[in-house]
Structures are given as structure tokens and as C-alpha cells.
């Protein structure tokens, strides 16, 4: 990619690459939303996608677990691999893929079921638990990892929709964790939350780092700076710049990146 | 002066009032504008026209409506006080026959009298009708003139005719909606009254819990107290409308709604949904003869072939199956709405966990849509148990208390039709039983509707 400038020299070489995208193009009908994006997502770092609204960062995120399949008019070209395996290959089972690449949405979307059932949903459909005791263990472990256990352990059978917005979002993260994914995609997970709830989610992202490959889409540059180690700047469906977060924010190579992070547009 | 003539005259007066008031308003407003007081002009001239025309027509119209109800009494009073009335027969029946005949001759509806007594009353009748006709017309015209004149003097550039007319429009709309409510109350009152009369003849306990229904024998005088036991009817209604019909309608309606909302492509949906909804547009009488002439005989033959005893050509199954088909669009469109109302984010959430579409439907969409679906089913049940034509044609009249779907059962609606068709006197328990049945049906469907709407509403709130 000509428009993309890799800060190769500042990347540490020893990271384990989890997902790679090569020349990915996404079309909605005739309209091209993503114009040839190549990027590597690794296990040890949190990767943030930033860019102005409509730049394609969410669309690209959704290609990583094939959620774009649910949009009838969407078409994806290029290669995306998970552990070297092409996820758009005919042999790839979408259902298995999504269990390995979990997703957290912009607006908390717990199911209208109890907190327990929300977490147990994934393990149940994937047959991860053997018996009730096993499921209890998974639920507790997932809620602990999501930083929610202490707040809800006495009311596991209350409705998940009765929790506060921030708790609901952590419930959704816990729900994604419960199926033991390898990658977690977060699509602007804090945009519907207040600052305190946002801080909790960001803290949680720090704790989850290293255990899962995490990709977070955000329109909040401070958030990207706080939670991520790698930042990718998208503009008009192109990946303009990708590199170490501190470099992107202090020493952007591309003019467009500089203009965006200094607030000239976006 | 006859009714149509006075109405025409009033309409003419109204038109004149409209035109002249409008002209006056125009003139006054032009004058006001010329003097530079533009802000003093409030309403368009047309509104002044309407204001005066309405003042001309409405009071006179109301008076005429009242008069039409009062005048016959006054006429009768006059006639009875005439000398010819002294020779009227004493008993009520022949008295009213004579009076009726005299009036028919006086108004020109009958050429000559059968009863010589009537002939003498024709003249007093004619006089009285003429007298009160003219009096009424004169009063109406006076009112029209008075109203018109009063309103006409109020036409000024700054008079707010527009607001006044608006108020009348609102009053008209209010009356229209009140009429519907009053009609409902009237129906309920008549149901209650006639049922009350029925229950003074037959004990409510016998009616609600008795298991023998045989109104004809009671009417003919050799029945017993059990003859009005309505349990077999209630059972038949539930068996056909709430059990057999729902066994057909719920799965089919639900599955078609799921297919249409989750799997069908937009093109398929565009064609299939209206086609399915066409089922709701088929007249119920067509369903009725389809059930009676096609389904019922086929079912009986089938039952006989597999050796079921007591198979009737008017079976509960035939009526229930066809009614179920009729109800499908209700269930499916309610289910469709409630599944579509489940936010897309729920679906996405489930799919992103690696659930398949059918797992998502089963574990997330259906539970979330369930209250709406239940509400839809309750509405469908209330529709089914009130349905008449299909059961009248296909379900039969025998009040059997049976679990055999091939046997003939009867329903509440069928029996109401049966009790009230033909010549009936209105004071026998047999006829009044129809009102009691109607009351029960009304209460049950009302409750079902209330519960259903409440369930649906509660659920809607959860996502907004």
C-alpha cells in the first residue's frame, strides 16, 4: 500500500501474529467501503482502529469475524487469516470462527435473560460445559475476568438487562470470554457509557491484554492512546498509517494522520 | 309543510347566510385594511361565512330533530281529544289498530279504511299533522333566522370566526367518537338486561355448570331444568376455537413468520406476505362451505376408513381445521411484528457468539418475542371463539360433550344463530338464552383482548 507507512523499525520483532489481512476490499453493493487494507494483529498488543466517522474502521473490524456475512449486499475480497488459516475459505466454518473471534458491540446488547444465562449462552451452544457444576465454574470465571463477579455474584438470576450500561457492557465482554475466544473485537465499546464506566472497561482491556488478541475500534483518540499499543488510522476506506501507538500520536508519518490527531478534521 | 321541504329551505337559508356573511366580512376587512389597521383582521372571510351558516343551521337542525320525536305525541293527544275519538274501542289492541289505520290514511300511505271507525279519525289526524307540521317548520325557521341574525351582527374584521369554527369541528369529532362508545354501551346494556331476564327464569348455576343443552324441549313444555346447561356449548367452542384451530394456526403461523422475517429474501417476502394476508380477506362464509362441503366429508370418510366410531359429517375437526387456516394470518402477522421488534443487536450478539441462525431464533428471538406472540395468539383465540359462519355451516347442532374430534359438537355462536333465527317470541327462555350466551361470549373475548393487549404493551415498553 502506497498510502500506508509502516513504522517497521519501531515494531518489536518477537510478537506472535494472530490475524493477518492482505489487500482486503469490502463492497456494499456497488459502493466500495474498504479499499485494500493490509494489517497484522498480534497476540500481545491491543490494536486500536481510529479514524473519522464513516472511514470504514467498523466495517473492517466486522470482516475479521465475518459479521458482514449477515449483510446481504456485502462482498469481501482479499485474504484474512487466523493462525494462517484463510477465514473466507469455503472450508471455514463461520460458526466456529465466531467462537474463536468474539465480538463486543457499540451498544451493550445483553440477551433478555438472567446474568447467568447470558454468560452460559455461548458455552451451552458450543457444548463447552459438562454438567451444571462445570457451567457454574465457567460462569464464575468469565464474570471474574470481566470484572463483574463481585458486583453480581448475589443476583446471578436477575435479568441482565436490569444492570447499568457499564455493567451490561462488561456482561457482554464476559459473555464473549465465556466461549474461550482467541481474539476479541470491540466496536466502540464505550461510546454509550459514562466516563466512570468507560474507565472500568479500559482497565478491563488492560487486564485482558496478553490472554486474548484485542482489537478495539474507537473514535476517541485519548482512549486509543490509553488502551492500545498499536494504532491503525483509517480514512475514506484506506489504512493510512499503522504503527506503535505512541509513535502515531507523537510522530505521525502521514500528513492525514497528523491533521486528524491534531484535530484539523474528523 | 313536509320534512324534506323544510330541510331544503333551511339548506337554502344556510347558503344565503354563508354567502352574505362572507361578503360582509370581505367588505369590512377591505375597509379595515384601507384604514391601515391590517392587524385588526383576524379570520378569512370564508370562516365568517361558515360561522354564520352554522349558527343558522345547527340550532334549527337540533330543534327539528327534537321536534320529530315530540310531534307524534302531540298529534296523538289532539286526535284523542277530538269528538270522533270518543267512539274508539276500549281494548288497547283494537284501539291502536284503528289509530294506526287512520294515520296511514291521513298521511296518504293507505287508500281506504277497512274499519269504519278509522274513517272518522282521518280528518282530526290530518288537521293535527298539518297544524304541528306548520308549527314545527315555523319554529325552525324562526330559530334559523334568529341564529343567523345573531351571528351576522357579530361579523367584524377582528372577530375570531376561525377559532369558533375550529371549536365546532372539534365538537363534531367528539360527538362522532362518543356515538361509537354509546353504541357499545347500548349493546352491553341490552345484553345485560335480556340476560338478566333469562337468569330470572333459569338459574345461572344451571346455565353455567349444567351439562345438558336442549332448549327446544324446554320451550315445548316437556323439558327439565337441565335443558339450559351450557357446558357442552362452552366445551364445543373451546374445542374448536381454542384447541383444534390453534393446533393448526400457532405452529403454521409462527413458522411462516420466522421464515418470512429470518430466512426469506426481500423479494420472496414481498410476494409471500401479502399472499398469506389474503387468507384474512376470504369471506368467512366461503371458509364455511369449504369446511362443510369439502373438508368435513373427506374427514368422515377417512375416519370411517380407519375405523373410528361416531364419525359425523359435521365434525369438530373439520370446523377447527378450517378455522385454524383462517386464523393463520393473525398469528403470523402478530408474530412477524414481534420478531421484527426484537432489536437487530440481539441477533448480532447471538451470531457473534458463534450461534447458528436457528439457534439464534430458538434461544434469543423466540424468547424475546414470546410476549408479543402470546398476545397475538390470545387475540386469535378471541377471534376464533367469536367466529360464527364456519361453525354454523360445519360444526353441527348436537350439543355433545365429547373429546372425539370426529364427532359433532356445537358452539356458543352456532346456538345463538339457531335460537334467534325464524319467528320467535321474545319472552321465552329459549330466545333469551341467546342473550345469556352472547353475554358470556362477550365477557370472555373482552377479557382475552384486555389480557392480550396488556401483554403486548408491556413487552413493547421493554425495548423502547
Write structural notes for this entry.
Chain A has 266 residues and is α/β, with parallel strands linked by helices. Chain A has a single domain, classed as Rossmann fold (3-Layer(aba) Sandwich), CATH 3.40.50.300. Chain A contains ten helices and eleven strands. In chain A, helix 4 packs across helix 6 and helix 6 packs parallel to helix 7. Chain A is globular, with a radius of gyration of 18 Å. The model of chain B has no long low-confidence stretch (mean pLDDT 85). Chain B folds into three domains: 157 residues, no CATH class; 41 residues; 255 residues, MetI-like (MetI-like fold), CATH 1.10.3720. Chain B is built from 16 helices and no strands. Chain B starts with a helix and ends with a helix. Chain B is mainly α and 464 residues long. Classes of the chains: A alpha/beta (266), B mainly alpha (464).
Write the layout of secondary structure elements.
The complex is a heterodimer of chains A (266) and B (464).
Chain A: E1 5-6, E2 17-28, E3 31-42, E4 46-50, H1 57-63, E5 74-82, E6 85-86, H2 94-100, E7 101-104, H3 115-126, H4 132-145, H5 149-152, H6 165-177, E8 183-187, H7 195-208, E9 213-217, H8 221-227, E10 230-235, E11 238-244, H9 245-250, H10 255-261
Parallel strand pairs in A: 1-11, 4-9, 4-10, 7-8, 8-9
Antiparallel strand pairs in A: 2-3, 2-5, 5-6, 10-11
Helix pairs in contact in A: 3-4, 3-6, 4-6, 6-7
Chain B: H1 3-34, H2 45-80, H3 92-106, H4 116-153, H5 161-201, H6 204-209, H7 215-219, H8 231-263, H9 266-278, H10 284-305, H11 316-341, H12 344-352, H13 357-386, H14 389-394, H15 412-420, H16 429-463
User: Which chain pair has the greatest contact?
Assistant: A-B, 28 and 21 residues
Strand residue content of chain A: 25-35%
- Our count of domains of chain A comes out at 1
Unreliable sequence segments of chain A: 7-12
At the fourth level of CATH, the homologous superfamily of the largest domain in chain B is MetI-like
Transmembrane segments (chain B): 49-70, 132-153, 173-193, 233-260, 280-303, 315-335, 364-382, 432-456
Organism (chain B): Sphingobium chungbukense
Protein name (chain B): Phosphate transport system permease protein
Family (chain B): Belongs to the binding-protein-dependent transport system permease family. CysTW subfamily.
Amino acid at each position: 500500500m502506497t498510502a500506508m507507512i509502516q513504522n517497521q523499525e519501531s515494531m518489536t520483532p518477537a510478537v506472535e501474529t494472530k490475524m493477518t489481512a492482505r489487500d482486503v476490499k469490502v463492497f456494499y453493493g456497488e459502493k466500495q467501503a474498504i479499499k485494500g487494507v493490509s494489517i497484522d494483529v498480534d497476540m500481545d498488543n491491543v490494536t486500536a482502529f481510529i479514524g473519522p466517522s464513516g472511514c470504514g474502521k467498523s466495517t473492517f473490524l466486522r470482516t475479521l469475524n465475518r459479521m458482514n456475512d449477515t449483510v446481504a449486499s456485502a462482498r469481501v475480497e482479499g485474504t484474512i487469516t487466523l493462525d494462517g488459516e484463510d477465514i473466507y475459505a469455503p472450508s471455514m466454518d463461520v460458526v466456529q470462527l465466531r467462537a474463536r473471534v468474539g465480538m463486543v458491540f457499540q451498544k451493550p446488547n445483553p440477551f433478555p435473560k438472567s446474568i447467568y444465562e447470558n454468560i452460559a449462552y455461548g458455552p451451552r451452544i458450543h457444548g463447552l460445559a459438562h454438567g451444571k457444576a462445570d457451567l457454574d465454574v465457567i460462569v464464575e470465571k468469565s464474570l471474574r475476568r470481566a470484572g463483574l463477579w463481585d458486583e453480581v455474584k448475589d443476583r446471578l438470576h436477575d435479568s441482565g438487562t436490569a444492570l447499568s450500561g457499564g455493567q451490561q457492557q462488561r456482561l457482554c465482554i464476559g459473555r464473549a470470554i465465556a466461549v474461550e475466544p482467541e481474539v476479541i473485537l470491540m466496536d466502540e465499546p464505550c461510546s454509550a457509557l459514562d466516563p466512570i464506566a468507560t474507565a472500568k472497561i479500559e482497565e478491563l482491556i488492560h487486564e485482558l491484554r496478553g490472554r486474548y488478541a484485542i482489537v478495539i475500534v474507537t473514535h476517541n483518540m485519548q482512549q486509543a492512546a490509553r488502551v492500545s499499543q498499536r494504532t491503525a488510522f483509517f480514512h475514506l476506506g484506506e489504512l493510512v498509517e499503522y504503527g506503535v501507538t505512541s509513535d502515531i500520536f507523537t510522530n505521525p508519518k502521514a500528513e492525514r494522520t497528523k491533521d486528524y490527531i491534531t484535530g484539523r478534521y474528523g | 309543510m313536509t320534512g324534506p321541504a323544510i330541510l331544503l329551505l333551511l339548506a337554502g337559508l344556510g347558503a344565503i347566510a354563508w354567502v352574505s356573511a362572507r361578503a360582509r366580512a370581505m367588505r369590512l376587512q377591505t375597509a379595515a385594511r384601507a384604514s391601515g389597521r391590517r392587524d385588526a383582521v383576524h379570520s378569512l372571510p370564508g370562516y365568517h361565512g361558515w360561522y354564520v351558516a352554522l349558527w343558522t343551521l345547527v340550532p334549527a337542525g337540533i330543534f327539528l330533530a327534537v321536534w320529530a320525536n315530540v310531534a307524534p305525541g302531540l298529534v296523538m293527544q289532539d286526535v284523542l281529544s277530538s269528538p270522533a275519538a270518543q267512539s274508539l274501542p276500549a281494548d288497547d289492541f283494537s284501539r291502536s289498530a284503528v289509530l294506526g289505520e287512520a294515520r296511514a290514511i291521513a298521511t296518504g300511505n293507505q287508500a281506504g279504511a277497512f274499519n269504519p271507525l278509522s274513517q272518522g279519525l282521518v280528518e282530526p289526524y290530518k288537521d293535527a299533522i298539518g297544524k304541528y307540521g306548520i308549527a314545527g317548520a315555523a319554529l325552525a325557521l324562526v330559530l334559523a333566522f334568529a341564529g343567523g341574525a345573531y351571528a351576522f351582527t357579530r361579523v367584524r374584521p377582528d372577530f375570531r370566526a376561525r377559532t369558533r369554527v375550529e371549536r365546532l369541528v372539534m365538537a363534531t369529532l367528539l360527538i362522532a367518537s362518543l356515538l361509537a362508545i354509546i353504541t357499545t354501551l347500548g349493546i352491553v346494556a341490552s345484553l345485560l338486561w335480556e340476560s338478566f331476564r333469562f337468569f330470572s327464569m333459569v338459574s345461572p348455576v344451571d346455565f353455567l355448570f349444567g351439562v345438558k343443552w336442549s332448549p327446544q324441549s324446554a320451550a315445548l313444555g316437556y323439558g327439565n331444568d337441565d335443558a339450559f346447561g351450557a357446558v357442552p356449548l362452552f366445551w364445543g367452542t373451546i374445542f374448536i376455537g381454542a384447541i383444534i384451530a390453534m393446533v393448526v394456526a400457532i405452529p403454521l403461523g409462527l413458522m411462516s413468520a420466522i421464515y418470512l422475517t429470518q430466512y426469506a429474501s426481500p423479494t420472496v417476502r414481498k410476494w409471500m406476505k401479502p399472499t398469506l394476508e389474503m387468507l384474512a380477506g376470504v369471506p368467512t362464509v366461503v371458509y364455511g362451505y369449504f369446511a362443510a362441503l369439502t373438508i368435513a366429508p373427506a374427514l368422515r370418510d377417512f375416519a370411517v376408513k380407519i375405523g373410528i366410531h361416531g364419525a359425523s359429517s359435521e365434525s369438530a375437526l373439520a370446523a377447527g381445521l378450517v378455522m385454524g387456516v383462517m386464523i393463520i394470518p393473525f398469528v403470523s402477522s402478530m408474530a412477524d411484528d414481534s420478531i421484527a421488534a426484537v432489536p437487530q443487536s440481539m441477533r448480532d450478539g447471538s451470531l457473534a457468539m458463534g450461534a447458528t441462525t436457528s439457534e439464534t431464533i430458538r434461544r434469543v428471538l423466540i424468547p424475546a418475542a414470546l410476549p408479543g406472540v402470546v398476545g397475538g395468539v390470545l387475540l386469535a383465540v378471541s377471534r376464533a371463539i367469536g367466529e360464527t359462519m364456519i361453525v354454523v355451516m360445519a360444526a353441527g347442532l348436537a350439543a355433545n360433550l365429547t373429546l372425539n374430534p370426529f364427532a359433532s359438537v356445537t358452539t356458543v355462536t352456532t346456538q345463538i344463530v339457531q335460537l334467534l333465527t325464524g319467528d320467535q317470541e321474545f319472552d321465552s327462555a329459549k330466545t333469551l338464552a341467546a342473550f345469556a350466551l352472547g353475554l358470556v361470549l362477550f365477557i370472555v373475548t373482552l377479557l382475552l383482548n384486555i389480557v392480550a393487549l396488556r401483554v403486548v404493551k408491556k413487552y413493547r415498553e421493554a425495548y423502547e
